[in-house]
């Protein structure tokens, strides 16, 4: 069984926000809501300065606190790809999942239910890549099965240095950033 | 230097989490208050006080039902997908404190109603005469009475602890991520209930009893708060940053002046003098305890949402 994850090559990302626009378009997101976003992190003192541009989204964690705290089972781990998904018809909008996410990756849809990145599972099930990955002009976004050693993402993680966000939260995030 | 910019600006999440407003602290306060009232009622029932005409026992279940319903109303107002609230009762999610709470609340209502039947308030009995028959059937068997008392004490304890555990299991918010939050909210709920009963009791002995109990509960609450802060400041960096919100940060005045000072220390001092017969009992101390209990929930709910992991 696949375990989907994403790899972001921060050396290639220019923060153009095509991934953000593609996500909003593909998922018909309302105004003022985004499921992925660009974060720019600069560290150090001139001339010793480091800059990292990241395309961020839900980390589809291995141990998702948003799933364990959900009182109705609306937030769940889908068998296919082990991704974290939300069933809108089960969600009561209690917002416990928003409070439980160390990445603040969730928000409330104007219709009242919790909303976040789905890794575009509707596209993946049709053999397509997530919209953000498909449109990225610098090819910095990679998607695939982390448990398959021959997948694009596994090979990148084996050959390059990478990090995840807030590993100390212990949630086992599955979006990796190549440095 | 570290500078982070983001393009994200989602409602309720940015610039910092603000998912829960006044409804949740009010619900947590009323839930804790009713939990304390249930435990006091169970205690009084075991002590056979419910048979006394002047006992506050006959008032507590009815008041509890009203206050809990008000709390549930506040909780309902907080939901974003209100029409789907019934989904809470189509499943039981064992890892979700909120699911536990939903089912505990369902059990609390019949327990409070059974407690009400132990001594039905006269105006209610006049309007609904069948309650007299039910009450007589319940009182006929002492084992049933003891069961009602035990159920109220157990469910009260569960409800009181749950209001704290609800927050403490949300590990992404370091201020809440302490196992002491459950005992703290239980002690605060019991203390608030003792203050309320002390204020409304017509029986002088009961009022005095609850004032003495409240002093011990306030002392316990101070001790738990102290341990809670020690736990935070000696924990990893994110927890120390969370503690800083109360130790010099934006919530410092509300916490130290409102919660600790006016909500615990001052009423503890006044009530200690009153119990020692040095001053008369007045409503000042209980009102301060109740206001402090409410402010405690506001401070924790709001400050907890500001505390976070990161920058990331």
From TrEMBL, chain A:
CDD domains: PsrB. Residues 4-33, 49-80, 82-111 form the 4Fe-4S ferredoxin-type domain. One of its GO terms (molecular function) is metal ion binding. Pfam families: Fer4_11, Fer4_4. Coiled coil: none annotated. Keywords: 4Fe-4S, Iron, Iron-sulfur, Metal-binding. This is 4Fe-4S dicluster domain-containing protein. It comes from Eiseniibacteriota bacterium.
Automatic annotation (TrEMBL), chain B:
It comes from the Bacteria. One of its GO terms (cellular component) is plasma membrane. Keywords: Cell membrane, Membrane, Transmembrane, Transmembrane helix. It is found in: Cell membrane. InterPro entries: Electron_transfer_protein, NrfD-like. The keyword Zinc does not apply. The keyword NADP does not apply. The chain crosses the membrane at residues 20-47, 59-77, 97-118, 147-167, 179-201, 222-239, 251-270, 282-303. It is a multi-pass membrane protein. Belongs to the NrfD family. This is Polysulfide reductase NrfD. It comes from Eiseniibacteriota bacterium. The gene is nrfD.
């Amino acid at each position: 069984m696949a375990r989907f994850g994403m790899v972001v090559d921060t050396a290639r990302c220019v923060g153009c926000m095509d991934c953000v626009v593609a996500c909003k378009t593909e998922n018909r997101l309302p105004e003022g809501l985004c499921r992925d976003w660009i974060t720019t992190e600069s560290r150090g003192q001139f001339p010793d300065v480091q800059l990292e541009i990241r395309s961020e989204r839900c980390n589809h964690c291995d141990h998702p606190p948003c799933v364990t705290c959900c009182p109705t089972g609306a937030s769940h781990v889908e068998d296919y790809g082990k991704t974290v998904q939300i069933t809108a018809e089960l969600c009561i909008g209690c917002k416990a999942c928003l409070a439980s996410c160390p990445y603040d990756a969730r928000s409330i849809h104007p219709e009242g239910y919790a909303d976040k990145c789905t890794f575009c599972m509707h596209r993946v099930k049709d053999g397509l890549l997530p919209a953000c990955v498909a449109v990225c002009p610098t090819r910095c976004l990679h998607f695939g099965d982390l448990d398959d050693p021959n997948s694009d993402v596994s090979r990148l993680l084996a050959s390059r240095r990478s990090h995840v966000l807030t590993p100390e939260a212990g949630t086992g995030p599955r979006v990796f950033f190549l440095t | 230097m570290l500078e982070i910019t983001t393009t994200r600006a989602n409602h309720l999440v940015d610039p910092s989490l603000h998912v829960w407003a006044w409804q949740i602290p009010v619900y947590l306060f009323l839930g804790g208050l009713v939990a304390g009232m249930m435990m006091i009622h169970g205690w009084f029932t075991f002590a056979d006080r419910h048979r006394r005409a002047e006992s506050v026992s006959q008032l507590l279940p009815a008041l509890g039902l009203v206050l809990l319903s008000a709390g549930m109303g506040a909780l309902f107002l907080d939901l974003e997908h209100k029409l789907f609230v019934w989904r809470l009762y189509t499943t039981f999610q064992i890892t979700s404190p909120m699911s536990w709470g939903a089912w505990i609340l369902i059990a609390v209502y019949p327990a409070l109603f059974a407690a009400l039947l132990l001594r039905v308030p006269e105006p209610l009995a006049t309007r609904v005469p069948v309650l007299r028959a039910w009450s007589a059937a319940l009182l006929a068997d002492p084992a049933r009475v003891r069961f009602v008392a035990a159920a109220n004490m157990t469910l009260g304890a569960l409800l009181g602890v749950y209001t704290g555990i609800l927050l403490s299991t949300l590990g992404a918010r370091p201020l809440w991520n302490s196992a002491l939050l459950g005992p703290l909210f239980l002690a605060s709920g019991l203390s608030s209930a003792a203050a309320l009963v002390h204020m409304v009791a017509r029986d002088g002995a009961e009022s005095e009893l609850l004032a003495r109990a409240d002093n011990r509960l306030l002392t316990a609450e101070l001790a738990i708060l102290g341990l809670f802060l020690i736990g935070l400041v000696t924990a990893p960096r994110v927890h120390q940053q969370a503690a800083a919100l109360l130790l010099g940060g934006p919530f410092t005045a509300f916490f130290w002046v409102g919660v600790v000072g006016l909500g615990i220390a001052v009423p503890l001092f006044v009530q200690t003098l009153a119990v020692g017969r040095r001053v008369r009992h007045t409503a000042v101390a209980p009102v301060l305890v109740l206001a402090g209990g409410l402010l405690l929930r506001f401070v924790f709910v709001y400050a907890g949402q500001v505390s976070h992991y990161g920058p990331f």
